[in-house]
Amino acid sequence: MVTFVDRVTLHLSAGKGGNGCVSVKREKFKPLAGPDGGNGGHGGDIVLVADPQVTTLLSYHHSPHRSAGNGGFGMGDHRSGALGETLELPVPVGTVVKDVTGETLVDMIEPGMRFVAAPGGIGGLGNATLATPKRKAPGFALLGTPGWQGDVLLELKTVADVALVGYPSAGKSSLIAAISAARPKIADYPFTTLHPNLGVVQAGDVRYTVADVPGLIEGASEGKGLGLEFLRHVERCTALVHVLDCATLEPGRDPISDLEVILAELGAYPVPEGQRPLLERPQIVVLNKIDVPEAKDLAELVRPDLEARGFRVFEISTVSHEGLRPLTFALGQIVAEHRAVEASKPPVERIVIRPQGAEREFTIRVEGGTYGDIYRVLGVKPVRWVQQTDFQNEEAVGYLADRLEKLGVEDELFKAGAQPGSTVVIGEGDGVVFDWQPSLGSVAELMTAPRGTDPRLDMNPRRTTSQRREKYYASMDAKAEARAELEAERIAAKNGQIGTGDEGVE
């Protein structure tokens, strides 16, 4: 049995960007012909696509975890890594995409609309791209950044021109089956319809869609029954059709009281901002089941009261199809008039102005800590640069320091009150923690140290073998010089003593 699902939470994981490559080209008679490390490939995006052929979110209900492909690593000889495979997820037209806080990200009301729900990571640059006239052979490359990971909420709101509303077992499913090719489940017990059914109706030159909304009861707008679960499916409808049961056998019910309850629930339902309230839209009342003699008499009795309240009333029978043709043409006229009004409106043009430098690229937040203030650097660029840095490579760390200094992070740290040795964290959570030491300026491009090292960083304080050998030789030389001086002083003193004795003998 096919299940209708109109709300689901997706757990998305976009592809990770590939790392850049560190490589030096070697040719015959040219052992160091320059860097040739390629760039890493970008990670794959996860894209939502509005597809008219999809009518439910059932597949995502059973498999909510979706991930895209990772980008390939860069290689030598200027070969870039492969791009991660983009994952396209088809969703029904009318799907609203929200974040975890409930804020609407996009309303996919047009077939073919595309929305990048999870952007892939950025591929790292290879050392060939990082080379400059002053830094001719970089000994490092940038790492790929991780893709976006998180949850999004998909909520389906049926896109239909006309909505059939009414009490359970009022005949809404029978009506949509009689006027269209839709074949919903029909039975003689309440709440037979558990999900909205769509049908296409052709009335002359007008073709429109009709949605059969599950039955409403008193208190539906507060969560009783199935009404609140499906009332959102009438938000996009142009007209409402109140289907009233004139042959009900339940005590205390009649078409007038049923209509009062439905109107109260529709009036209590809040529609999104910018949309017309449900009760301000065109409404038609349908008195159903007039093939029953008692129902026919009741319909004729209540019709004057309904028309006095301003409703257009149609008496129909879904069994004998009596009155269906006038109803379908009346609905087609309403839909055609609404489409003409919408077509005459000028399109709303959205102009988004983002002046350069209007938004700060980073912020610094001072947080209190057990051992003093912590200065947290937040921003898209600093966080991305940290993700791209190989902290096992001294030259890469120096390159990161230069980028942060050029961005103005050090100046802002001074303004925030940071002192040499203060704790600085880049990014939310644990982030990257280091003891800040202000630099004197950007000198990474003027380095003459071996590739992969930065003399500004003392990452390995232990002495090397050559340094210990030099110190040993220097110590031995100093000892030899000291012994030579002592020996010279001893010989000089001895010669002086001998000279004094000889003179006494004479």
Keywords:
alpha/beta, 506 residues, five-stranded mixed beta sheet, elongated, Spo0b-associated Gtp-binding Protein, Chain: A, Rossmann fold, six-stranded mixed beta sheet, GMP Synthetase, Chain A, domain 3
Task: Write a short abstract of this structure.
This protein is of the alpha/beta class and 506 residues long. 28% of the residues lie in helices and 19% in strands.
State the low-pLDDT regions, or none: 185-194, 219-227, 442-447, 502-506
Q: How many domains, as an integer?
A: 4
Alpha-beta classification: alpha/beta
Question: Which sequence of strands runs across the widest sheet?
Answer: 10-11-9-12-13-14
CATH homology group of the largest domain: P-loop containing nucleotide triphosphate hydrolases
Report the β-strand fraction as a percent range: 15-25%
N-C termini distance: 138 Å
CATH architecture of the largest domain: 3-Layer(aba) Sandwich
Protein name: GTPase Obg
Subunit structure: Monomer.
Main location: cytoplasm
Biased composition (Basic and acidic residues): 453-476
Could you describe the 3D structure shown?
- This protein is α/β, with parallel strands linked by helices and 506 residues long.
- The protein folds into four domains: 1-156, GTP1/OBG domain (Spo0b-associated Gtp-binding Protein, Chain: A), CATH 2.70.210.12; 162-344, Rossmann fold; 366-446, GMP Synthetase, Chain A, domain 3 (2-Layer Sandwich); 472-496.
- It has eleven helices and 18 strands.
- The strands form four sheets. A six-stranded mixed β-sheet has the order 10-11-9-12-13-14, with helices on both faces.
- A hairpin with a 6-residue loop joins strand 15 (363-367) and strand 16.
- The N and C termini lie far apart (138 Å).
- The relative contact order is 0.09.
